[in-house]
């Protein structure tokens, strides 16, 4: 690994194929996200009404270099006439490149039935091509596709380039093509850095499927999948590669998302990968740092992006409420043992607390931003250095949210998570402006011991827009230092749901992310939404549930069939089963431990609460029970809104 | 194959897992679609608040039998203590089945690490289970999962059942588990029919991927995928199976679609499969036949559903237009050489014609049903026996559309295609009511020779709702006798697009179906819609294009980059390239032939026109050029609506 003093250059690029839209849309998005350059993906250029010269000018105006033109397919051939046609085709593409002002083209290994199998013959044909390129001041970057008919490993592509021995011919390395085949990337260090003409980076989830389909539809941006890209990039940098780090990601979701948003996600992934590989990111190469706070904003070439914060727990969860949902949420919190312990000095915000669990009810945010009634609007995270965490968040391209601060009130900067939830960095109880809690005037309500014994927030579960799920995972990992630690897929009553949890090492912060993979809301079942929730931890779930029921909490009813099945599956002791059944508790167990939990009804919008007890080292969230919860919430919806299908 | 006289029974069933919603939603949908019975998928029951007795009563009220309770997993075990726990678990499930009033449970082969590998041991354990079942009047249906740890082929499951030799133990055959592994289903004929306790049917597209994921997410209803299910079912019937034909389809799209609609699609698939296997479907077992026409409506046990019609071409394409789009569409048709040759006697509908190409512009349908301006509202198909085609359509569960008929006008019944396009069966020029054309008063416009020489409609391309694509394929195959003959996938500028074409043998009727796999409309790019179009055939595309341009048709501009690429790729003769370039023509060629075509702008809504010339035996639609078309339409949208991203 390179040290900070000999840090390799950080130049970023993106292939236009990664994002949605016309070529013009894509260039604008790449520039706005801070990329240094682009690869022009030929089909994007072919459908554009902009000439090559116009594209060149547009890129210059946007401050983008054109680092590569790609792809040139099926060059080598056992058919000599076809080779001549292919050389003619290349000449036409050199014309385009000349007008674009780029000198590098990607030639990928042939997939045609006439592909050559003899390295010497391929080398000879590539040598001819490279010589034609050289005469026009251009260069050829040869890449082994993972599904090339004959050439499909990087070491074979390098053998051929070495044999061709032409100054205008080098290799292009693509992490997907190499890692998807299980090739050992360590051998890359044997390739002279100056012969690695280009580097394309892509991650991917592990999938046991045809590699061509995997590549064309399911690639991800770095740090979003399962490939060890820091190790891969380390080998490439050790070899002496000094060119751009360029993304080439084919992904069906990114292909149709807002390109501005996807480009930011993409650029963040490169910053995160560089940091993981090299150790740190220069602040002047990261996202622009702006904001109201005078503490940050300048950058020098020797300043680094602060490392990811070590979060110490939840400071608060803030719910947006309106006139209708506010009282319902407050009443439920009261039944769950919370007290209204503070009132904001300048805004219509209530603080409800119990132990270290704190919930803010904000009636000012409810109307415009959260039209659904009640919703999770913000999360406060405890961290020792909120200012550094905010600098990092902005450097890692998290959008800064505007904030109105009253005189003498805490000045917390907030950034928007991918689902628009506001993220605050706090130091609750600190003597400075980072403690938000001083903004609240204590009420007369006694903060005595609650019979429920809720200690803290266990997790907050956020529903993600379907095309921001991978972006959200990267955001929580990169901005908040919360890697994905748990993932699952649930065949729920109204469609497939994927879950991931981002959490810190000690489990004091857990963020659940859920996404309805195909469903987009209640098309046929208008009572079905994808609600968010806040879960509180207790050490005695049975006592907590009894107290909640006694206080009149709207505990979600669980059907008898569930307990009959639990009995059949797990043969629990009779008293345990009776307690579960009596109190509408749900249950899960693994080899690591047990999970007991209960839910409330959905409260006037898209929020509900959960109370959980973890026993042993159980790391999940009782996802196996979520279909029970969804069906029960649906029944409540129907009962209260008379929706019927 | 069984003959009509010895026709096997047609009883239909569906596993509740196939469709979306709560158990109550699913039962209602299955009954409404005409199924005789259901398999209760256990997770659907577990999340339900209805007790087993209530479910039993509900099914009885709906006229549904409960044919199977499923699945019971991981029964056999190398751990004797686990076997005892599993027998206890089975006893609890027998309790549920007793209350449900069903006697058959599905036990699938074990996938656990403790699965037994010795047939004799598995047989002994299953014998114990079967004996317990027998004592309660129940039976066990043993199925080999394709990914069972040890037992994963149907012949091994039969070997085990035979060895266990218990009257309450038989096999369950699932077409997916058998065909996905490439097993030869002919051996099924060696199993005594009475030992085949249950039959589960599912189709699937060919996918080179992990069989578990393939099964859990991508199964399809019969006749929607690539399995040879008629051959499979033939073997099962030859063996003597007399139980229900039951669907078990896990599909991410169906899982979240309107269950009422999905159940109809599902039932249609079984009727189609039965017809393909046995030769015909008794009319009284198909969908209920109702309608205004007195010619049909009664059914006898010896009457058969008429075979699929042999379509002879397009009678017309009908566009809904409004005050704004109507003149624009009419003007464009005029530029394309059509004349306004008729006016409907009682409705604001114009007939425009050229050769055998006829387009109706209907200003009465435009406002309520098609709020987007102009849209394809209906298609008329030529057939020799429109009444029989209508009987079949309704028997195959196509929804009959209401129709207002004026005195003395043609009385055509219409059914709705999955995308809501009305489908009419016509006999243009017939002396009876099946000729619609007599409803139009000829105008004074000369129907002389057009310089464009458009002869007929080549194809109509319909955009499908994303969750009705497979339903649409089955509809066109089953109701109209148009199997899918061509399919492709296009990485278009705004996301992945899949195309299929349903066509008859002589190509006189071709329906294009396109679907945006993930995109749901213009989230980030509000100018992007998924327009439909009507394509007209000519024998001289160059002359047609020149005439259209001379007449001022809004021919879609094609970027110069496209022609440069065409030149590079295909090295066309210079005159051909010049003609293409001059006239904004697009081009494709395969080993079968060539395709020349041009498009118009989108006309005031979501409709455009295309003019095509097929040379040789070219069967495609120039899909390779559709990204060029989409980007060009987007530019036009932006230019006229000032939408910018």
Describe this structure as you would to a colleague:
Chain A has 645 residues and is an alpha/beta fold. The first copy, chain A, contains 17 helices and 25 strands. The first copy, chain A, is elongated, with a radius of gyration of 28 Å. The N terminus and C terminus of chain A are likely disordered. The interface between A and B is large, with 73 and 73 residues. Chains A, B: It is an enzyme of class 4 (lyase). Chains A, B: It catalyses: 3-dehydroshikimate = 3,4-dihydroxybenzoate + H2O. Chains A, B: Catalyzes the conversion of 3-dehydroshikimate to protocatechuate (3,4-dihydroxybenzoate), a common intermediate of quinate and shikimate degradation pathways.
């Amino acid at each position: 690994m390179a040290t900070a003093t000999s840090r390799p250059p950080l130049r970023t690029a993106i292939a236009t194929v990664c994002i949605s839209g016309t070529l013009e849309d894509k260039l604008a998005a790449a520039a706005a996200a801070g990329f240094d350059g682009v690869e022009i993906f030929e089909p994007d250029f072919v459908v554009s009404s902009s000439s090559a010269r116009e594209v060149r000018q547009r890129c210059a105006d946007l401050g983008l270099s054109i680092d590569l033109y790609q792809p040139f397919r099926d060059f080598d051939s056992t058919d000599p006439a076809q080779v001549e046609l292919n050389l003619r085709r290349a000449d036409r593409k050199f014309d385009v490149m000349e007008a674009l002002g780029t000198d590098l083209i990607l030639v990928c290994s042939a997939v045609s039935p006439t592909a050559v199998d003899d390295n010497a013959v391929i080398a000879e044909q590539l040598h001819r091509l490279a010589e034609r390129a050289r005469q026009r001041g251009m260069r050829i970057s040869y890449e082994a596709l993972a599904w090339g008919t004959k050439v499909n490993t990087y070491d074979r592509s390098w053998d051929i380039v070495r044999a061709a021995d032409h100054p205008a011919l080098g290799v292009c390395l693509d992490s997907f093509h190499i890692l998807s085949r299980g090739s050992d990337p360590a051998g890359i260090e044997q390739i002279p850095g100056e012969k690695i003409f280009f580097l394309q980076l892509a991650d991917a989830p592990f999938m046991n499927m045809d590699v061509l389909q995997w590549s064309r539809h399911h690639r991800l941006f770095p740090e979003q999948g399962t490939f060890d890209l820091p190790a891969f990039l380390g080998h490439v940098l050790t070899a002496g590669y000094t060119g751009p780090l360029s993304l080439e990601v084919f992904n069906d979701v990114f292909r149709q998302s807002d390109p501005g948003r996807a480009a930011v996600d993409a650029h963040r992934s490169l910053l995160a990968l560089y940091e993981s590989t090299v150790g740190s990111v220069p602040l002047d190469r990261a996202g622009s740092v702006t904001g109201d706070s005078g503490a940050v904003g300048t950058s020098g070439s020797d300043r680094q992006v602060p490392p990811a914060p070590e979060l110490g727990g939840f400071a608060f969860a803030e719910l947006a409420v309106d006139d209708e949902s506010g009282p319902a949420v407050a009443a439920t919190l009261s039944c769950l043992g919370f007290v209204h312990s503070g009132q904001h000095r300048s805004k219509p915000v209530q603080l409800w607390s119990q132990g270290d669990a704190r919930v803010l009810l904000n009636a000012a945010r409810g109307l415009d931003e959260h039209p659904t009634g009640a919703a999770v609007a913000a999360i406060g995270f405890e961290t020792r250095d909120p200012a550094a965490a905010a600098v990092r968040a902005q450097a890692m391209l998290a959008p800064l949210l505007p904030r109105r601060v009253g005189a003498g009130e805490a000045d917390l900067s907030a950034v928007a998570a991918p689902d628009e939830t506001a993220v605050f960095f706090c130091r609750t109880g600190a003597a400075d402006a980072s403690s938000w809690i001083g903004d609240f005037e204590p009420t007369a309500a006694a903060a005595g011991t609650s019979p429920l014994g809720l200690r803290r927030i266990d997790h907050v579960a956020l529903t993600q827009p379907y095309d921001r799920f991978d972006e959200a995972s990267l955001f929580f990992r990169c901005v908040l230092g919360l890697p994905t630690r748990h993932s699952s897929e649930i065949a729920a009553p109204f469609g497939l749901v994927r879950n991931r949890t981002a959490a810190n090492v000690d489990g004091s912060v857990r963020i659940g992310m859920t996404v309805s993979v195909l469903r987009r809301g209640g098309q046929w079942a208008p009572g079905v939404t994808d609600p968010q929730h806040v879960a509180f931890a207790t050490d005695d779930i049975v006592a907590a549930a009894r107290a909640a029921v006694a206080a009149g909490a709207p505990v979600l009813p669980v059907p008898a069939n569930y307990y009959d099945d639990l009995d059949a599956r797990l043969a629990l002791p009779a008293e345990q089963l009776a307690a579960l059944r009596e109190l509408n508790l749900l249950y899960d167990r693994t080899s690591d431990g047990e999970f007991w939990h209960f839910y409330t009804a959905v409260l006037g919008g898209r929020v509900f609460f959960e109370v959980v007890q973890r026993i042993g080292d159980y790391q999940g969230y009782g996802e196996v029970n979520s279909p029970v919860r969804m069906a029960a919430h649906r029944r409540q919806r129907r009962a209260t809104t008379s929706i019927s299908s």
